[in-house]
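Aim 2 progress update. The chain analyzed this quarter is reproduced below.
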Amino acid sequence: MPREIIKTDQAPAAIGTYSQAVKVGRAVYLSGQIPLDPATMQLVDGGMEARIRRVFDNLAAVARAAGGELADTVKLNVFLTDLGQFALVNQIMAEYFQEPYPARAAIGVAALPRGAEVEMDAVLMLDE
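Predicted structure tokens:
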């Protein structure tokens, strides 16, 4: 199957050797998003709540560019430098997703790019 590279200026530009997303058939593989403001390419201010929201907003922008939305997510990976923030992720995630929720993993990590505290990537499955 041919691959389609997804790119949007509504989400942060790639800061490395990767694409924002790759679409193969109905599947869309979204690269990890950290809480960068797409306009400034700087980490957002406002604490962890604002950062988690920015990550979800970035993922949503890439999903839209691929012809989908967050509701099409079948797998979400959450990377946190402090797993003590996981309850806050759950609280905010409930504002972005409705049941049935996607499969999910939460992984504690020592560090993330640019000193971010949270990163998420996702897999979408689009309708035919």
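Helices lie at 47-65, 86-96. Residues 28 and 49 are 26 Å apart (CA to CA). These observations will guide the mutagenesis experiments scheduled for the next reporting period.
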